[in-house]
Amino acid sequence: MSGKIPSEEDLVLALRSLKAAHPALGIAKTQTLLLDHHKDWSVSEKRIRKILQSEGLHTASPNETKKVWPSSKVNDSLDVAHFSKKIEVRVFDKAKGKGLVTKEDIAKDEVIWKEDPFIIAPEWDIHDFQAAGKHCGYCTTQVALDSSLVIICPSSTSETPCNIRYCNRLCLKRSRATHPLLCAAQNPASIPLLQFIRRVEWQALLALTNLTSRILLANQLQVDNELNNDWGVVKGLAALGMEDRFKDAGREPDRDTWKKCFELYTGALHTPKSPADQKKLAKVLKKPLDPEIENALFEYSSFLRGLGRMSLNLESHGGLYALHSHLNHGCTPNISVRHLDQRTALSRITMIALTPISAGSELLITYVNPALGVRARRTQLMEWGFGECRCARCMEEAKQVKANGGDDDTITGSGPEDGGDDLQKELTAALGVL
Question: pTM surpassing 0.90?
Answer without folding.
Answer: no
